[in-house]
Structure formats: structure tokens, C-alpha cells
Model the fold of this input.
Amino acid sequence: MAPFSSKAACCSAAVIVFVATPLNGLVHPMSKSTHLIHRRSNHIHRLNLFKGIASNVDDEINREIADAEMSPFDKLKEELDKGGSLKDAFAAYQTRKKETKGDYENKLALLTNFRSYSNRELLDSDHYTDEPTLDDLNQAVPSKGKTIWASSLYRIGVFVGAFFLFPFVCQLLSTFVEIKSDEFDIVNEQFTPGIGILYGTFVALTLDILYERQNKVQENASVEASLLSQVTQNVLNLFRDQPQIAREASQIIADQVRIIVYRPRGAEMLNIMRADPYARLLSLIDHYQRDNTKFTPQQEAVIDGLRGEIPALMEARAKRLSDEGSSLPPTHFLVLLVLTALSLIGFTAAALTITDDAGEPSFESRMVFAALCAVYVLFYNFCRDMNDPFDGVYQIKRSSAASFLLQIKWLIASQPFGKDVRFDTRGLAPEFDDEEILVGKGDLKVQPASSGLPERNTQQVVPSAASVTADVPVSHEALSIENAQMITVDNNAIKVTAADESTAETVILEAQHKAKYAAVEAKMQSLKEKATGVSFNAKLDDGLYLVGCGVRKKAIINVYAVAMYSSPTALEALAPFPSGKQKKEAQVALRNAARTFGPSSPTTSFVLEMTFKADGKTIAGAIAESVKPRQGGSGSDVKDLENFIVQGVSAKGGQATKGTIFRFDCTEEGVSVSVDGSAQGTVKSDGIGSALVDVFMDDKAVSPQLVNSCLDTWCGKDLFVAV
Done:
């Protein structure tokens, strides 16, 4: 058939022809060759990233931060739990201890130094639609430990302590040092003044460095935030008729805002190397400009402006990161302490010439010594406080940068697609890559989704016999259809005209299915169990999503960390319940959704990671004893479950050491057991899968923390619900 003419293209509005392809594992039963088609409006777009730039590295950042939070003793225990030798464990201890000294820049320092340019909670989904106010610019109150040195009570305490300590210092110095009377003149006239000059010069130099650093960090952060705000406005203006591209560009900007607001400097460094938001944004604009040939003068001006603003953003970021990294090392403050001690020793030596017969210093010299100590301690703490521009008394003033960052959040949140953009965690995955189908105004191009598949005549349209219409968010649209079908799109409504009604309904259901999963993936995040420090990935390889995590306690012992994974159906069960309210009802809804296995939710999995060493029989017996009263079936089924656990642990020497991972996949047919990734077998019995779900989800759950985590994570979330 001949290609569409330009006249036909104009008259067809949004008619799009689809060819069969698998979609998230859902393959039409009659499909024999696979193609992928995405609808694009008006112009051709191929918006792939620069080679080497990923879309997101949040999971790796979370793993790196969790590792950085481990103490030297934790590293020693970890090495021993892995079965390493005592020598290797001690080497791991020494390495981590050396890294914590902070005299040189390393991964640990990059990931553990606190940094924030705005209040983190303002990016949470709970505050997403809140209008910015002046209260949002309030600086967080620092901890008392960071500000106590500036209190009057602290300074008075130093003064009084030094006043009463001075006689003991004089006695100690006179005991160990014998100085002739003529040698005191050398101390008084040369040593003490020289140390005083050196101390004053060193303090002045320190304060000059720190003042300049703080001013530069504050200035560059404000410049970068204002430039990013301007880029946001220009991007929204440029893509106002391209909601999909605007949504993706907004998510890129939101990723950078999240990094600036509360992620450590090391996280931003990793992001720059692997998934630089500014490079991603430049790539998107580059491909948009390359794939379009006609622009209005306004669009050309906006694109030219963006091409100048984004490099300026990169420059401002580079300056900010450089200034953030120019903190003074601990050795610098050690030198300051040494000079302080020498200055006080010089004064004490001079005071020995005016002690009474009992060796007691005069009242006046005690007062002067106490005053000197108070001033020296004040200067030292003042310098230490200024070395941390994000905490303590002398923090940078972040209201300027914060106002621009909150403006960005509000601009994006106010867009029609704003609910799809996430600031507190990763958002929707990019939809544009090298494998996309290009649909332009007046033409249709098709690329095979997999090499080796034959090309097909995509212009052929099956005669319509039935049609079905449903509302599916356009930003989530990606459909696979058997044979060639005609789709018309009107705002958010997708009308499928197919050879029969059944096929049309299948297409709609597939679109809704994908939209549901996309909405969940926009909100999913890895979680760290607080009591044990164990982190769980946001998604399993087989497509199950993390619902929550908790800990199994036995008395005061944390036996294992546990996470629950399930389908979007289980997550949707919690969506109607407000966060923090109706917890009992929400728990019942989640339990029912997780234990009632069906086509939309065939599997619920539990992943257990041991944090306490136990033998296989003990852990297997404990799990079996929990399942038995809830199963109510044959005791042999529970015994089989117990045997599979023991069998898996026996392969490790009979001990479930720290780090051993159990996985239980609960289905309508039964429970599959694996230990450290090795499948042990499946207990095939009706009801045992639901019974194991009840162990963790009913009103006598063995881990209440898991239940609370599930509710806190997903209650009140605005998830897509198929219509």
C-alpha cells in the first residue's frame, strides 16, 4: 500500500497504527512478530541519552551511603560473618579507621558529610502540592551539641574551670621544669610573644579561608539555583505542547533539586559521573532540536537560551562543589591546638616568677589565665563551627537558594503532568531511547523491537468491526497490538478500533496495565531497616515491588530483617487509607490483597536476611511453628517447608550466618523456598501460601515493624487504578 499523503495525515488527526509486541511480559496469544510503537504528537522525536549517561543511579547511591555509615567495628564483623580470616577482618577494620580520619578526601568523607540547601521534608509527596511560604525558608535548628560552645553557660564554665585549674598547672610545670631566673626573661621576652604572633597569624589565616569559603558556597549555590529556575521556566515554555517531553525534562530537573537539597556531596559526584542531570537535559534538548526542522522565532530563542544556560549551570555547580570540598582537614585544627597549648604554657612559665612561697599563683594571674583559656576555646570552636557551613551556629544563609528551589518545585507541581514528577525519590523512567518508533506529522516509521524480526507493512489497517474507549494517561501510553489496529487519541482518552471487541478491550487493558506499573515505579524506593541496617532493593528481578521492611526480634536480639514484595494490586489496597490513620483497616486490606492470589496478584514474596547466627533447624523450626497454627492443613506440608529450609542451610555448613538470605514465594499453589539464591523446592499445598503471608501480616504478625513500614510507605499514595 502507498504511504500516507500529507493530506491524509492532516485529516487523520491522531490515527496511529500498531504492530504486535510483548509488553511487560504480556504477549498477545496470536503475535508472531514483534514491533514497538509509541505515539508522538506533531513532530518526530528521538530523545535518547548521550552514550554512557544513565537515567538514574539512586539504588547505587543508597548502597554506597549504607556502606559508608558502617563503623570500623561493623566492617570487622561483616568480614568475619562473610567467613573471612581474622587477618582480613582486622585489615578491614584498619582501612575503615584510616578512612574516618579525614585528612584526605575519600569516599567515606564524600558520603558522610552532611549537606543541605533547603528543608528536606518540603520535597516529600505529602507537601508536594503545598504552596511555598516564608515559613519554608526557616533555617533548621542545629543540634545542641553543635551550638553549646556559643552559650554563656559554656563560656562561664570554661572560665571557672581554668581559674581553679591554673594552680595545678603551675605546680605540674614547676615539678618537671626547672628554669633559672635569668631564663625566665628569655621565655617572657622571646618565646611567649613569638608564639602569640604565630597564633594570631594562624587564627587570622584560618578565619579568612573559612569566611571566603562560606561566602563562595552561598553565592554559587544561589547562582546555580536561580539559573536552574530559569532553565525550568524555559523548558516548560519550549515543551508546552509536548507534555511527555516536558514531564521527562521536569523529572530530570527534579532529580537535580533532590541532589542539591539533601543528598551528600559524594552522591552528587556519582550522579555527575554516571547520570548527570544537566547532561541528560542537554541531550534531550539536542535531540529535540535535531529531529525537528521548523521552529518559531520564539522557540529558537528559547533553545539558544537553554544552550547557554545549561553550561552556565554546570560551571556554577563545579564552583559550588569545589568550594564545598575545600574544608580544612583535622590536622589544621591539631596545629591550632598545639599553638594554643604552647601559648598557655608560655604564660604559665612567666607566671611562675610571681608565685608565693607555697608556689601558688596570684589571683590576678589566675584571672588572666582563665580569660585566655576562655578566648582560646572560643576561637577554636568558632573555627571548627565555620568549617561546617551546613550545621552549627555559623551556617550559610540558604534562603536565597531555597526560594529558587521551592519555586522550581511549585512550577513543576502546577503543571498538568506534575503529579507524575517526583522530588523525594526516583520518578518515572525515561520513555525515549534508541529503540523508539518515530511517528511524525504526515509519515509513519517503524523499527523492529528486536533484530532479526522481519519488517511488516505497517500501513495496513484491519477493517474496524468494534471499538472500545478508556481513559489512560497519555504520559503512560505504550501499547502492543496483534495485527494492525487503529488508535485515536483525544486528550487522555484512547479509542481502539479493532477487528473485534475482544481485541480492542485487550489493548485497552494492556495500556492500563502499563500505566499502573508506571505509577508504582514512580513512587517505589529502596528501604533500609533501621534496627538492623539491612537495605532492600525497590524491586525484585521478577517484577515484584517492595511493600515494606521490618525486623524479627527475639527478646532483645534482632534475628533477621524481613521485606515483603508484592504486585501493584497489594499496593493499591493501601492507597485509599490516609497516612497514619485507620491502620487496623489498612492492615486488613493489605493482608487480604497479599494472601488472595489471582491473575493481578499471583505472588507475594518475603525476603529474610539473617542478622544473628542460628543453626538451620532452629530457624526452620521457628518459621514452621508460626505457619502451623495458621495453615490448618496437613502437618506434612509444614514439615516439607521445614525440611527445605534445613536443606538449604545444610549446604552452608548447617549455620545460617549473618547475611544469609531466605526467600519465600507464596502463591495459590504453595510456597517456594530458596536460600542464598539457590532454589530448594516448592511445598505444593492449598492454603500454605496464605498462611505464610498471615505470619507476617495478620494481627499477631511476628514483625509488627514490617506491617507499620508497609502502611507508612504506601498509605495515601495516589496510585493509578484501572477503570
Notes: The first strand starts at residue 16 and ends at 18. DSSP finds 22 helices and 16 strands in the chain. Residues 1-49, 431-486, 488-493 have pLDDT under 50 and may be disordered. Residues 637 and 683 are 7 Å apart (CA to CA).
